[in-house]
Design goal:
Order of helices and strands: EHEHEHEHEEEHHHEEHEEHH
Helix content: 40-55%
Largest sheet: 7 strands, mixed
Bound molecules: pyridoxal-5'-phosphate
Shape: globular
Oligomer: single chain
Length: 325
C-alpha cells in the first residue's frame, strides 16, 4: 500500500515513477477526471486519449488495446471507476482484457475515488494480489467526507508500492491526518460512513425519479453508481422538441450559483457530455431545494427565450396569483 496526500499524490507519484519526461505518455479515457492530464502536463508527459464508448461510458477495449500496441511509450493507463463525471462503474471484464494485453508492459491504474457509492463487489482492490501490473486508488475524500485531512491510498503489488513509497518526502502524512484516518476506519465510524452512503443512495433514487418531471431536463446519460448524476439540459422543454444545449446548461449553472447559492458542475465541454450538468446528490433538504430552484431557473431561461411550456406558464401564473391573494 502507498498512502498519500489525497489520491492526487498517487496520481502524480505514478507519473514521476514510471514516465520519462518529454518521452513517455499516459492513456486516458475521456470524459474523465481532470487531474490525470494536469499531472501529466506538470511532469512533461503527453496524453493519448481513447474516449469512452457512448452511450454507457464504458471502455472501448479494442481501441485501447490498439493504442497500447502501437505506442510503447505509453507507460500508464488511468481508468476511473466509477467515472468522474460519468458515474458509471467500468465493467470488470473490460479491465481484465487490458491487464492481459499480450505485448504492452505498462501499468493499469484504476481510480476508485467514488467506489463506496457503488454496489458491493464493484471494487478491484483485491485484484492487486493477482495482477502485478495493477494499481487501485481510493480516498477518504468522498464517501468518508474527509477531503480536508488529505488522505488517499493506492493498493498494488509490493514491488510498485516500494517504488512509490521511496519517492515520498519523509513524514509527509501529518500525524493528525493519520490519527483521523485510523479513527475513520474503525467499525464505529465505518458504520457512520455506510449510513451516510445509504441516505445519499436514497436521495440519488429520488433525484432519478424527480428530474425527468422538470421541464427542460433532458436525458440522464451517466451511470447510477456514484454520488452525482449526469443530466442533459435542453434548449426547450422535451415536449417542444428540446435539444441538449450548453447555453441552457451554463445558464442553469450560473443562475443556481449566483442567485440561489446552489452549486452544480457544468460538464458540457467534456467529450460526449453536450449540455450536461453533473449534479451532486445531497441531503433530503438539499435535494428539495435543488429541485425547486432548478425548476425556477429553467423556467426563467425559457420564459426569456419564449419557450416556456403552456403547462408551466399556467402553473407559474397560479403560483403568482396565490402569492398576491
Ligand atoms: C476521480 C477522482 N479521483 C481522485 C480525486 C482526488 O481526490 P483526493 O486527492 O482528495 O483523494 C478526485 C477528486 O475530486 C476525483 O474526482
Amino acid at each position: 500500500m502507498f498512502v498519500g496526500v489525497g489520491s492526487d499524490e498517487a496520481i502524480d507519484a505514478l507519473l514521476r515513477a514510471f514516465c520519462v519526461p518529454g518521452k513517455d505518455k499516459i492513456l486516458v479515457c475521456p470524459p474523465t477526471y481532470g487531474m490525470y492530464s494536469v499531472s501529466a502536463q506538470v511532469n512533461d508527459v503527453s496524453l493519448v486519449k481513447v474516449p469512452l464508448r457512448i452511450p454507457g461510458f464504458q471502455l472501448d477495449v479494442p481501441a485501447i488495446k490498439d493504442a497500447l500496441s502501437e505506442d510503447s511509450n505509453i507507460k500508464l493507463a488511468y481508468l476511473c471507476s466509477p467515472g468522474n463525471p460519468t458515474g458509471a462503474v467500468l465493467q470488470k471484464e473490460n479491465i481484465k482484457q487490458i491487464l492481459e494485453h499480450e505485448s504492452w508492459n505498462g501499468i493499469v491504474v484504476v481510480d476508485e475515488a467514488y467506489i463506496d457509492f457503488a454496489p458491493e463487489g464493484s471494487s478491484l482492490a483485491e485484484w492487486v494480489a493477482e495482477w502485478p501490473n495493477l494499481v487501485v486508488m481510493q480516498t477518504l475524500s468522498k464517501a468518508f467526507g474527509l477531503a480536508g485531512i488529505r488522505l488517499g491510498a493506492a493498493f498494488t503489488d509490493p514491488a510498485i508500492a516500494r517504488i512509490l513509497n521511496s519517492l515520498k518526502a519523509p513524514y509527509n502524512i501529518p500525524n493528525p491526518t493519520s490519527q483521523l484516518a485510523r479513527a475513520a476506519l474503525t467499525p464505529k465510524h465505518l458504520g457512520v460512513m455506510r449510513k451516510n452512503v445509504k441516505s445519499i443512495v436514497q436521495q440519488r433514487n429520488r433525484l432519478l425519479a424527480e428530474m425527468p418531471k422538470v421541464p427542460g431536463v433532458g436525458r440522464f446519460i451517466g451511470g447510477e453508481e456514484s454520488n452525482f448524476l449526469l443530466y442533459e439540459m435542453l434548449d426547450a422543454p422535451m415536449e417542444q422538441g428540446g435539444k441538449p444545449s450548453n447555453e441552457t446548461a451554463l445558464g442553469v449553472y450560473e443562475g443556481l450559483a449566483e442567485d440561489k447559492g446552489v452549486v452544480v458542475r457544468f460538464r458540457g465541454k467534456e467529450y460526449g457530455c453536450l449540455g450536461c450538468l453533473r449534479i451532486t446528490v445531497g441531503t433530503e433538504k438539499e435535494v428539495d431545494r435543488f429541485l425547486e430552484e432548478l425548476r425556477i431557473v429553467l423556467a426563467d431561461i425559457f420564459k426569456k427565450s419564449g419557450k416556456l411550456g403552456a403547462e408551466e406558464e399556467e402553473k407559474r401564473e397560479k403560483e403568482a396569483n396565490a402569492v398576491v391573494a
